[in-house]
Amino acid sequence: MKRGRPEIGERALIIMAKAARVGHVKTRLAAILPADAVVDLYRCLIEDTLDLARSVPTDALAIVCPASDVGDLASWLPAIEIVGQQGDGLAAGLVSAFRTFVAKGYRRVVALDGDSPQLPPDTLENAFRLLDGADVVVGPTMDGGYYLVGSATSQVDLFNSQRMGTGSAFDSLMASARALGLRVALTETGYDVDEAEDLTRLARELRLFPHRAPRTAAWLMRRPELRRW
Question: Residue 132: is it exposed, middle or buried by C-beta count within 10 angstroms (0-12/13-18/19+)?
């Protein structure tokens, strides 16, 4: 398969995000960071994730978010297509992402969380490539969730809204895929930033590889309480 820019309509990369508001994002980090710092960190994570997404050849790059967040995200990130989801919660957001972009004719759709900016670009490239031989591609996380999911079809029945954001989200997704008779391929195991230990892991990684998420790396270095990690 020839590398380079894919065919028109081939690839869509979707980032799942929210408006950067106090009490609306990364709420579990409020135990270790002031509320305004959590929002600042979230902005860095999303902006670095967008840079990661732009480093991979795609035909569409968009953000899918709660419908109530569209205005705030459009003001913050005016150069990116913002799509309001139908329904509430991450499961509804993922269903909306696949339904919307498969309906537009994209043959491979990958949805990525907004808090794994440290991923190598090759991980995203591999996710698209794995869809050549699989119905669904999943990027599992160490805590039992997943940072990425991709498909070539509108997977309405794949996502369990009761288990999203829990330690059983990955197992639930795999069980749903098996029940639907779908072929699943996995990318490398990674992590997202939900808890204090996740932020510790990210801070350590970005001290070694700050170029992977430069805004986040610089923000972490400016926090004296985090520099010792």
Answer: exposed
CA distances from 203 to 43, 45, 124, 228 (A): 16, 12, 22, 9
**pTM passes above 0.70:** yes
Residues 6+ away with beta carbon under 8 Å from 97: 14, 16, 64, 83, 85, 109, 111
Position 46: which residue type?
Answer: I
CATH superfamily of 11-222: Spore Coat Polysaccharide Biosynthesis Protein SpsA; Chain A (3.90.550.10)
Query: Could you read off the pLDDT of 10-26 as tens digits, one per residue?
Result: 999 999 999 999 999 99
Each domain of the chain, given as residue ranges in start order, spans 11-222
**Residue 110 DSSP SS3:** strand
Digit-coded pLDDT (tens) for 183-223: 999 999 999 999 999 999 999 999 999 999 999 999 999 88
- Which tokens go with 22? 């106090």
